[in-house]
Amino acid sequence: MSEPVGASVVRLVEIRDTALSIDEVMAVLDDPTDGGVTVFVGRVRDHDGGRGVQGLDYSAHPTALERLRGVCEQVAADHPVHGVAAVHRVGHLEIGDIAVIVATAASHRGQAFDASRTLIDTLKAEVPIWKHQAFVDGTEEWVGAP
User: Fold this and answer.
1) Which of UniProt's keywords are assigned here (predicted)?
2) 12 Ramachandran zone, left/alpha/beta (phi>0; psi -120 to 50)
3) Which terminus, N or C, of the chain has the lesser number of Cβ atoms within 10 Å?
4) Are 96 and 43 in contact (CB under 8 A)?
5) Class of the 10-136 domain?
6) Mean pLDDT of successive 10-residue segments in the chain (146 residues)?
7) How far is residue 123's CA from residue 60's CA, in Å, rounded to a whole number?
8) Measured distance CA(28)–CA(78) in Å, rounded
9) Where are the domains of the chain?
10) Would you tell me the crossing angle of helices 109-126 and 64-78 to the nearest 10 degrees?
């Protein structure tokens, strides 16, 4: 799922079933006016709640891309940033795979740090993307599903 992004502050918003690229995110935020770019990369870890994880699948509601765009636009409106990017993966992911990348660019590092924290925290709270975890003991669970 992808949506074209113009020359606005929101530079990249996508939900895709292919590998995510930090280089791609950095490239769309490349601007000589910015003194700080803060990037958060969320990866699949090998444990959760004291149990071993063997892999997981992410699913997105049909409105997820629209909701993700709205979160990015709100962060851009609330923080003095020049660039915002958010990309989330869906489908099957293995341990170590990148699940999400969010980044913001601003004149100063503090502005970028604050905006990126708001971006990832709001994305996790408001964008309908759900995680189905498979544990090494054969059990499974859905995280974030309604």
Assistant:
1) Molybdenum cofactor biosynthesis, Transferase
2) beta
3) C
4) yes
5) alpha beta
6) 58 98 97 95 96 96 98 97 98 98 97 98 97 95 81
7) 12
8) 20
9) 10-136
10) 150
